[in-house]
């Protein structure tokens, strides 16, 4: 990963752009008024999922870097410096000849080490009686589930994995950096396996690459050597430490297998354990993920917000669960998502409930309750709100949570509700509310610079071009409308490259690896076209799409003919007889295009 990709992995495009444009969620995307034209209806779209923006009024689009360059009038180098500072990325580690490539190669080696480790653990799993007994019998996972999630087993022999990776030409530093070695000297290899005698649960990034492991102890009461030379009980779960690939504050477990179900159902369920996720997926409820071994963070919610704004939590209903819910409500307000709670009967965890009856799990997911309402009900049952002390504790807990809400109407609703529950005047509650010390999120800083405006004719040209190409890219049956289009009719190099590709590959579906590779130089433009298609044409019947493709084709040709004729008219003024004849022949050919 180079510096640009590192910055993109740490910043959300919607957050960067929201410093300049007021954005509002519209389904999976965000919308706002164009900063490049004087429009009154929002046609500026940001796709968190694709990390792309597109302005339909001006035809501009790109990634977060291109947007900041447009708004700030900076070159790429200065834009990288600005965004790296926001992201907390030290550019020095990427400087020097070939350092970007070297860093990218290093990360690819770490990916390769983790992938190979997962395969090694899978082989050991198939040979381990204790691991098979735990996963297939006790947890009731099927063999297909074990394969899908790449469940494995780490042998309790000290350095088996490290020795295996060394034999595959990985260096000790690469093994340590991948989080696969404890780093202590052990045996002939000089390395000690991080995981030993455990069920191995691979952690994947959203693209499905292995970035680390959660490891579950299988031998109860097992011990390990402590730093002072003694021994103590081994923890039940241990995770890969922080590494160049794995960041527990950002990683959402199971997202690589859940994201399609999240898109379809338009909500996601967040549970506490990895094995709860696996059980739910096996039961057919696949829009389920987890934060592996850590509290929910803003980065977790931002990752999920790319797919949905409806996030349902299945947390333990103890004190820790209450505290986690309080924090989650505040974070959700910052990210702009809705948090609700799932209450499981009899205090079971999802895995236990699913093994009892998967239908009950489906039912409780549908009976979710808005998080703050759930929190009020829980504290109301725990505290005696008829006493002065109970009222004080009730309001002390809940008012900071209400203060963290972003909507003033919602805040007022809950102030009225809390006052009604505890039987006090709302004025008295408001006085305490104003005294709470939790800070509201400050207003975003807006840049006052006005970007260069785009004239209406140029914007119209770009709109027609992009809409026709979006239709042709996303609907192969419409590509014959590109047959009369020539590169000279288009207005950008990216569009000309896309035209040439689609004309040369009329049957392209996006599944052909070599053809996808050919599109890589214009990958961002392809994403822009897909966003344009989603916004303009998603769900429209094919007969109407044909009509629009025909209309855009005609307009594109008409604009081209008009422009060419104006140029010919200028040339005719000083042309001799031969030149005039040649120019008039060009006019005839242009008229034929219109037919």
Number of discrete domains: 4
CATH architecture of the largest domain: Alpha-Beta Complex
According to CATH, the homologous superfamily of the largest domain is DNA primase, catalytic core, N-terminal domain
- Per DSSP, the total helix count is 25
Query: How much beta, percentage-wise?
Result: 5-15%
Uncertain residue ranges? 184-189, 225-232, 437-448
Could you tell me the radius of gyration in angstroms? 29 Å
Number of strands: 16
What's the shape? globular
Structural class: alpha+beta
State the share of residues found in helices, binned by percent.
40-55%
Distance between the termini: 51 Å
- Strand order across the largest sheet: 1-2-3-4-5
Could you explain the architecture of this structure?
By secondary structure, this protein is of the alpha+beta class. The chain has four domains: 3-94, DNA Primase, Chain A, CATH 3.90.580; 100-239, Alpha-Beta Complex (DNA primase DNAg catalytic core, N-terminal domain), CATH 3.90.980.10; 255-374, Dna Topoisomerase Vi A Subunit, Chain: A, domain 2 (3-Layer(aba) Sandwich); 456-594, DNAb Helicase, Chain A (Orthogonal Bundle), CATH 1.10.860. It is built from 25 helices and 16 strands. Strands 1-2-3-4-5 form a five-stranded antiparallel sheet, with helices on both faces. The chain has a five-stranded mixed sheet with strand order 13-12-14-15-16, sandwiched between helices. Strands 6-7-8-11 form a four-stranded antiparallel sheet, with helices on one face. The longest helix is centred in the last third of the chain and has 31 residues, at 542-572.
């Amino acid at each position: 990963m180079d510096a640009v990709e590192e910055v993109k992995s740490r910043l959300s495009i919607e957050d960067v752009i929201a410093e300049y444009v007021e954005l509002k969620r519209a389904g999976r995307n965000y919308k706002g008024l164009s900063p490049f034209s004087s429009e009154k209806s929002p046609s500026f779209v940001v796709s968190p999922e694709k990390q792309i923006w597109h302005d339909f009024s001006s035809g501009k689009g790109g990634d977060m870097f291109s947007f900041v360059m447009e708004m700030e009038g900076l070159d790429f180098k200065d834009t990288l410096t600005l965004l790296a500072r926001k992201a907390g990325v030290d550019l020095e580690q990427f400087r020097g000849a070939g350092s970007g490539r070297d860093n990218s190669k290093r990360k690819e080696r770490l990916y390769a080490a983790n992938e190979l480790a997962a395969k090694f653990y899978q082989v050991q799993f198939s040979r381990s009686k204790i691991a098979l007994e735990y996963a297939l019998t006790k947890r009731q996972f099927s063999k297909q589930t074990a394969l899908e999630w790449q469940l494995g087993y780490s042998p309790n022999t000290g350095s088996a994995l490290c020795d295996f990776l060394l034999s595959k030409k990985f260096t000790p530093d690469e093994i340590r950096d991948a989080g696969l070695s404890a780093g202590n000297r052990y045996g002939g290899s000089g390395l000690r396996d991080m995981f030993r005698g455990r069920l191995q649960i691979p952690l994947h990034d959203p693209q499905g690459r292995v970035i680390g492991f959660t490891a579950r102890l299988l031998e109860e009461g097992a011990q390990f050597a402590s730093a002072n030379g003694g021994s103590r009980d081994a923890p039940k779960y241990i995770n890969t430490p922080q590494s160049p690939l794995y960041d527990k504050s950002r990683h959402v477990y199971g997202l690589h297998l859940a994201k399609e179900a999240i898109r379809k159902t338009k909500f996601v369920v967040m549970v506490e354990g990895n094995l709860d996720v696996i059980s739910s997926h096996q039961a057919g409820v696949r829009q389920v993920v987890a934060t592996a071994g850590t509290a929910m963070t803003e980065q977790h919610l931002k990752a999920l917000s790319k797919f949905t704004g409806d996030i349902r939590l299945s947390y333990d209903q103890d004190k820790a669960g209450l505290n986690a819910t309080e924090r989650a409500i505040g974070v959700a307000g910052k990210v702009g998502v809705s948090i609700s709670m799932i209450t499981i009967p009899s205090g079971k965890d999802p895995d236990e409930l699913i093994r009892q009856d998967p239908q009950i799990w489906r039912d409780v997911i549908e009976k979710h309750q808005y998080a703050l309402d759930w929190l009020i009900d829980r504290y109301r049952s725990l505290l005696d709100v008829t006493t002065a002390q109970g009222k004080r504790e009730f309001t002390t807990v809940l008012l900071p949570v209400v203060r963290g809400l972003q909507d003033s109407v919602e805040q007022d609703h809950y102030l009225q509700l809390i006052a009604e529950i505890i039987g006090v005047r709302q004025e008295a509650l408001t006085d305490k509310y104003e005294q709470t010390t939790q800070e509201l999120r400050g207003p975003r800083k807006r840049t006052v610079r006005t970007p260069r405006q785009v004239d209406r004719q140029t914007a119209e040209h770009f709109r027609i071009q992009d809409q026709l190409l979006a239709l042709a890219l996303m609907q192969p049956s419409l590509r014959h409308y590109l047959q009369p289009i020539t590169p000279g009719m288009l207005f950008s190099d990216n569009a000309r490259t896309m035209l040439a590709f689609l004309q040369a590959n009329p049957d392209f579906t996006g599944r052909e690896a070599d053809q996808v590779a050919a599109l890589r130089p214009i990958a961002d433009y392809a994403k822009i076209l897909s966003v344009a298609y989603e916004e303009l044409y998603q769900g429209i019947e094919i007969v109407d799409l044909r009509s629009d493709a025909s209309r855009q084709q005609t307009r594109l040709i008409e604009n081209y003919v008009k422009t060419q004729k104006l140029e010919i008219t200028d040339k005719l003024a000083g042309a001799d007889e031969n030149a005039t004849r040649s120019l008039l022949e060009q006019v005839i050919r242009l008229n034929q295009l219109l037919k």
